Amino acid sequence: MADPVLDLPDEAAMLDLGRRIARQARIGDVIALEGGLGAGKTTLARGLLEALGLEGEAPSPSFAIVQPYDVPEVSLPVTHVDLYRLDDADETQELALGDYLMDGLLLIEWPDRLGDALWPHSLRLTIEILEDGARRLTADVPEAWTDRWSQI
Fold first, then answer.
1. What is the pLDDT of residues 9-26, one digit of tens each?
2. Are strands 105-109 and 30-34 parallel, antiparallel or unpaired?
3. Where are the domains positioned within the chain?
4. What is the pTM of this model?
5. In CATH, what is the architecture of 10-133?
6. Residue 103 CB neighbour total at 10 angstroms
7. Distance CA 104, CA 142 (A)
8. What is the model's pLDDT at position 2?
9. How far is 18 from 126, CA to CA, in rounded Å?
10. Gap between the Cα atoms of 108 and 7, Å rounded
11. Which of 21, 38, 43, 133 is the Cys-Cys partner for 14 at CB 3.0 to 4.6 Å?
C-alpha cells in the first residue's frame, strides 16, 4: 500500500482527522507525529483527545514532556509525549515510554528524538506546511493499522 496523503486545508480539518483517528485507536497503539514547529501536531492530538472525551483544551506537553490522560477524563488512556526538548535518544530511555503501552495509547510528537527506538507498529504521520498555509499529511501505515486506516 502506498503511503496515503491527505491535504488538510485548515485547523478544523486537522482536528477532524484527529477525531477520526481516535475512533480507530486501541490500547497498545503508538501514533508518531512528525513535522516542523507549527505544523499541527498538537492540533491533531487535541482532536484525538477531544474525541476520546477530554473536555477543555489539551495543553502542549512541550515543557512537561509527558502528559497522561486517564479514565474517566478520557475513554481510552492516552499518554501524550513531546520529545522536542530532548537532545539525545538516551534521554528518552529514562521516560520508560513502553510502560504506557500496556494499558493505553502513546501519542508522540517529535518521535525522531527516539532515534531508531520507535516501535515498528507505530502509525507515523508526517505533516508539512504548504505555501498556502494548508497542511499535507503523509501516513506511514504499519500492518497493525492497515484495516483501520481505511476507516479513517
1. 999 999 999 999 999 999
2. parallel
3. 10-133
4. 0.93
5. 3-Layer(aba) Sandwich (3.40)
6. 13
7. 18
8. 66
9. 13
10. 21
11. 43
